[in-house]
Design goal:
Largest sheet: 5 strands, antiparallel
Strand content: 15-25%
Helix content: 25-40%
Number of helices: 3
Number of strands: 9
Shape: elongated
Number of domains: 1
CATH topology: minor pseudopilin epsh fold
């Protein structure tokens, strides 16, 4: 065949470029590790836990439910910082925290709280109150989560009970 063409067709080039892109994205995610995502995962988990505690308190049959506390323990060590439905004054051990799905703690995250009180209860309307039933978080209660890589993200609980990602205004 005189004049036969040498080289790749357009379809072959496109397929090769797509395959190289898929391989590079997979390799990049393996090299980055999970530390860049720890803060986001912890924030999403914390928002879910706070909302779960709020909904549980709203469904309670008593007028002032102090059975479902959201307790924030802000510590400086790896295992002394946690938040969730905690009954004691200190963070539970790693085995206890693993058995309960309503706790954010561990070696990957540090918790800080903007309020002087470290426990929030929710009334039947889902609004944050203290143990005597007085409303709190008038300017918003902010929970800061800091990951190992020093990435800090926030959760805000406003006075009407909305729980959102980000800083309180």
């Amino acid at each position: 065949m005189p004049g036969s063409q040498r080289g790749f067709t357009l379809i072959e080039l496109i397929v090769v470029i797509i395959l190289i892109g898929i391989v590079s994205v997979t390799a990049a995610s393996r090299l980055m590790g999970r530390s860049g995502f720890d803060a986001y995962l912890a924030r999403d988990q914390a928002v879910s836990i706070v909302r779960q505690i709020q909904i549980t308190a709203m469904q309670a049959t008593v007028s002032q439910s102090t059975d479902f506390p959201l307790r924030i323990i802000a510590g400086f060590g790896e295992s002394s910082s946690c938040m969730g439905m905690i009954t004691g004054a200190s963070c539970p051990s790693e085995s206890e925290a693993g058995a309960v799905s309503r706790i954010v703690s561990g070696k990957t995250i540090h918790v800080r709280f903007s309020s002087r009180q470290n426990t929030i209860y929710f009334d039947l309307l889902g609004r944050p109150v203290d143990n005597s039933g007085q409303r709190m978080c008038q300017a918003g209660c902010q929970i800061n989560l800091e990951a190992r890589d020093r990435k800090s993200l926030s959760i805000c609980i406003n006075s009407e009970g909305f729980i959102g990602q980000g800083r309180c205004n």
